[in-house]
Amino acid sequence: MTRYEPRHATPWEQGAGSHPGGRQEQQDRWGLFESPDRQGLLAIVADGMGGHRDGALGAQIVIDTARSFVLNPPKLLQSNPLAALDELSQQMHEAINLQSEAARSTLVMVWLVSAHAYWLNVGDSRLYHFRHGHRLMRTRDHSAVQLLMDLGEIKESQMATHPAQNRLYRCLGGEESPKADMGDFAVQAGDVLTLCSDGVWEHITEIEFWTMTCDHGPARAANLLAEASAQRGGATADNATLVLLRANSVVAESLPWLRRLSSGFAALFNRNE
Q1: For 56-98, how does the pLDDT look when each residue is reduced to its tens digit (9 = 90+)?
Q2: Counted domains in the chain
Q3: Segments forming the whole domain that contains residue 35
Q4: Which residues of the chain form beta strands (DSSP E)?
Q5: pTM, whole model, 2 decimals?
Q6: What is the end-to-end Cα distance of the chain in Å, rounded?
């Protein structure tokens, strides 16, 4: 499995787990990539589509492209992170099409820098943001069942078991350029972020992401939840992959507004002396 291991303490405790489920091949991929200046971290999950060989290929291209992007970051990633992530998704899409006519992939990724999260998703792999055991947000699936839920025809709890759950209208690869959803939010110490493929969120409840991370830490929890997804799915279980991130106390030290505020107070006191 492709990954990058940071070699020093970061503001984020990290963990990832992956299980093939009842499938013969693991077509999910995940990655954790740190920027060369050690100021940013990209977490990413991709769920390959397009048949036996091409599904895995599509997801692997997504991860390989992300790695190269972060280890050789454009200036845009610092000045406009969301625009940079959108550019990255376009590069992934083009790279998939160059190598295969059939390969497709979902994408969910989050760029973490200075106590802030910038996210992008295409397809039905998800990002969740939890604080104090409550979900603050989740990405919106590009799927038929998400549209049914938006129309009020089904409840959110029914999405995982609906017959049309696997019908997506957006992905990476293919003739249409990806139309990603993007956003950003501030993070605090103790926050938990979950990125996962549909093979996980179909079988794991939201509160389990929080409680398992709190009880076991992200590394152990990710493996336990991937295994639980496969067990609950049984013989037909889909590939299950997730990344768990928990902000530690160091994240508070990364708040740029706090540093500016402190500097402002210091300057004020100096003038009054």
Answers
A1: 999 999 999 999 999 999 999 999 999 999 999 999 999 999 9
A2: 1
A3: 12-272
A4: 12-19, 28-34, 40-49, 104-105, 107-113, 116-122, 126-131, 134-138, 181-186, 192-196, 240-247
A5: 0.88
A6: 59
Q: Which residues pair with 251 in a beta bridge?
A: none
Q: Which amino acid is at 157?
A: S
- DSSP for 2-50 reads -----SS--SEEEEEEEE-TTSSS--EEEEEEE-TTSSEEEEEEEEEES
Whether 5 is covered by a domain: the verdict is: no
Residue 77 near residue 84 (C-beta atoms within 8 A)? yes
CATH number for the domain harbouring residue 190:
3.60.40.10
Residue 174, Ramachandran bin (φ over 0: left; ψ between -120 and 50: alpha; else beta): left
HSE-up (13 A, CA, CB side) for residue 249: 0
Residue 52's SS3 state is helix
**Per-residue model confidence as pLDDT tens digits over 9-66:** 569 999 999 999 999 899 999 999 999 999 999 999 999 997 667 889 999 999 999 9
The kind and range of the H/E element at 83 are helix 81-99
